[in-house]
Amino acid sequence: MTRFQALEHEALSLEPEERATLAETLLASLDTPEDIEKAWAEELDRRSADFDSGAVQGIPLDVVMAEVRALLE
Description:
Blueprint: H1 3-12, H2 16-28, H3 33-53, H4 61-72
């Protein structure tokens, strides 16, 4: 059995919550801070362009707050 196969076997024997945490940790290790910052900048540019073009509309703060208050009641 290779080292990878042994790790895989052990990981699959973990409880679901532990496997999820391990998966998140492993996935996060693939991204550098620069990759993450670039991805967020691209997302911000996309959202801003959608807003500027009218593809999406903002929701007024008073409407959002009223919805939040109603959910909390």
